[in-house]
């Protein structure tokens, strides 16, 4: 069974032009996939179909083998956690603890179970010392970790991260990514929407490129970044390492350490 | 052009100084980039460059900021808004008019600049940001990169001496980022504009700036040419600053004795190997 299966998905906002023009793709359980493409290419609209925030105009979406149309947003959000770009939009409680406990409370879990889950997530997201702090007094990176904690506490099997690192500094970005990597190691399926090609080549096993409401590329980071024609069509800039390995006439590499080894071997 | 002497600042709401004795001189026509972890004081420093701190945002301020010979303590903010153009992260928060043209005319009209000169300034500013064809467009219809370029053009119509940009591309996609950085390159090279850029991505910094200033906890901890700064890989790492891939790669090769120098751009990297 796949984590996600999408079949010929079309989507049109009311009184607007078609945003998704027939998208078909599958994501295996435990995959780490990056979804890339220019602004307006349809990435976010596409991802909003995974937890039912949007419903297909035509076509089908299956989550963990079940047709998404038979489930409510609440039911789907238990399977698919969605972290958005701006953490402030997702924060509304008075303490960090209450913020994270909000989701599990709505599942009517017993209080001890809620506490146990929240404390575990506080540890994973390195926020334990802020348990009783007001969320809005946290820094940008901490707020994003809190938003991630509120998603992770629902123990979703699929995690969608929509530009989770925009506006954060590198230490905060590394903090978020460390947590995401840990979750991935525990077999959570991760879909990362990002413009940062460095992150894409560092983290993902597979890259799906969207352009104009369709999937125009699908492969490993090396395959995608070696395809100049595709990169031009999608207005994507390959990582510097990739460009440089091409200039040196070496086999394409997307990571600095790998290219370093290759150069040293060649010299 | 800019002289900062022993500058200290503390917001009323905070217990610690956010600027703890900054000394910095920036020459006319220089392109200076400021980098550092969140909370290091770089955005606060920007706000002292047109007098918003201490005149609009008050707090415990000591030291001097002197712009083109004039101390920010001695004049109104409006005086400096003419000399120092300020561009922030989110272009949407700076645009308000119904057309691009009105947006650009707003500043000089308020200064009672004659009509013909306003016209000249608008054409000049639009050609620098490469958006002559969008003159009658509603700003809301533009892409993120175009909006930020209009925000830059709007400050150019004030004919500032200095442009200060606080993470101007952090909300933009790669196309928008490229558009904005190429405008900055033009302004620096062709118009000789003095530019202060706060930015956390090091690739554009390496390519564009004459000098890099690294801040941490309210102080300047490193300062020098991009080459001088970006070869300090371990020190920067500790501050959470990643040098450009090409600089990191050539740093490793230099450490291993394979090349003589680090590269700041791909072109420089290529030259190391021929």
Write structural notes for this entry.
The complex is a heterodimer of chains A (267) and B (274). With 267 residues, chain A is of the alpha/beta class. Chain A has 2 domains: 4-92 and 154-234, P-loop containing nucleotide triphosphate hydrolases (Rossmann fold, 3-Layer(aba) Sandwich), CATH 3.40.50.300; 237-267, no CATH class. Chain A contains 11 helices and 10 strands. In chain A, the strands form 2 sheets. A 6-stranded mixed sheet of chain A has the order 6-7-8-3-9-10. Chain A has a 4-stranded antiparallel sheet with strand order 2-1-4-5, with no helix packed on it. By secondary structure, chain B is of the alpha/beta class. Chain B has a single domain (2-225), classed as Rossmann fold, CATH 3.40.50.300. Chain B has 12 helices and 10 strands. Chain B has helices spanning 42-48, 52-55, 77-83, 100-110, 115-128, 144-156, 174-189, 202-208, 226-230, 233-238, 245-255, 266-272; strands at residues 2-11, 19-26, 31-35, 59-67, 70-71, 84-87, 162-166, 194-198, 211-216, 219-224. Chain B is globular and about 65 Å long. The termini of chain B are far apart. The relative contact order of chain B is 0.15. The chains are: A alpha/beta (267), B alpha/beta (274). The A-B interface holds A 38-40, 139-141, 166-172, 174, 195, 197-198, 235-237, 239-241, 243-244, 247-248, 256, 259-260, 263-264, 267 and B 37-39, 89, 143-144, 167, 170-171, 173-176, 178, 200, 203, 240-242, 244-246, 248-249, 252-253, 256, 258, 266, 269-270, 273.
């Amino acid at each position: 069974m796949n984590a996600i299966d999408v079949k010929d998905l079309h989507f049109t906002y009311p009184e607007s032009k078609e945003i998704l023009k027939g998208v078909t793709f599958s994501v295996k359980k435990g995959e780490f996939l990056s979804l890339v493409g220019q602004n307006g290419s349809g990435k976010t609209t596409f991802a909003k179909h995974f937890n039912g925030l949007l419903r297909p105009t035509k076509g089908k979406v299956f989550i963990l083998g079940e047709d998404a149309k038979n489930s409510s947003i609440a039911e789907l959000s238990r399977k698919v956690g969605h972290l958005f770009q701006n953490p402030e939009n997702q924060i509304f409680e008075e303490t960090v603890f209450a913020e994270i406990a909000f989701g599990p409370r709505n599942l009517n879990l017993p209080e001890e179970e809620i506490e146990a889950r929240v404390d575990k997530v506080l540890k994973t997201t390195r926020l334990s010392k802020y348990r009783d702090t007001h969320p809005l007094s946290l820094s940008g990176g901490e707020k994003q970790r809190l938003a991630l904690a509120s998603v992770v506490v629902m123990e979703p099997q699929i995690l969608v991260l929509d530009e989770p690192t925009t506006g954060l500094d590198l230490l905060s970005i590394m903090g978020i990514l460390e947590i995401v990597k840990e979750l991935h190691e525990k077999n959570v399926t991760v879909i990362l929407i990002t413009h940062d090609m460095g992150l894409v080549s560092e983290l993902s096993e597979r890259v799906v490129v969207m352009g104009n409401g369709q999937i125009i590329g699908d492969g490993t980071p090396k395959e995608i970044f070696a395809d100049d024609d595709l990169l031009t069509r999608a207005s994507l800039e390959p990582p510097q390492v990739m460009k440089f390995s091409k200039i040196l006439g070496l086999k394409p590499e997307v990571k600095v350490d790998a290219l370093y080894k290759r150069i040293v071997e060649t010299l | 052009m800019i002289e900062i002497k022993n500058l200290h600042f503390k917001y009323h709401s905070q217990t610690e100084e956010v600027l703890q004795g900054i000394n910095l001189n920036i020459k006319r026509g220089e392109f200076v980039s400021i980098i550092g972890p969140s909370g290091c004081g770089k955005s606060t420093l920007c706000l002292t460059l047109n007098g918003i701190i201490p005149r609009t945002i008050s707090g415990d301020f000591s030291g001097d900021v002197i712009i083109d010979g004039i101390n920010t303590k001695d004049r109104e903010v409006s005086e400096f808004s003419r000399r120092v153009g300020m561009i922030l992260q989110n272009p949407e928060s700076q645009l308000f008019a119904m057309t691009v043209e009105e947006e650009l005319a707003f500043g000089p009209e308020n200064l009672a600049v004659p009509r013909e000169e306003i016209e000249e300034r608008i054409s000049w500013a639009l050609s620098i940001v490469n958006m002559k064809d969008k003159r009658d467009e509603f700003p809301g219809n533009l892409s993120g990169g175009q909006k930020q370029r209009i925000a830059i053009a709007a400050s150019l119509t004030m004919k500032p001496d200095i442009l200060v940009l606080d993470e101007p591309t952090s909300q933009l996609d790669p196309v928008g980022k490229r558009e904005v950085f190429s405008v900055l390159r033009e302004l620096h090279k062709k118009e000789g504009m003095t530019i202060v850029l706060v930015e956390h991505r090091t690739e554009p910094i390496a390519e564009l700036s004459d000098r890099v200033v690294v801040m941490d906890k309210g102080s300047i901890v490193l300062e020098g040419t991009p080459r001088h700064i970006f070869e300090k890989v371990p020190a920067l790492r500790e501050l959470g600053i990643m040098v450009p891939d090409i600089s990191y790669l050539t740093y490793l090769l230099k450490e291993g004795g394979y090349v003589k120098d680090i590269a700041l751009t791909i072109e420089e990297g290529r030259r190391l190997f021929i």
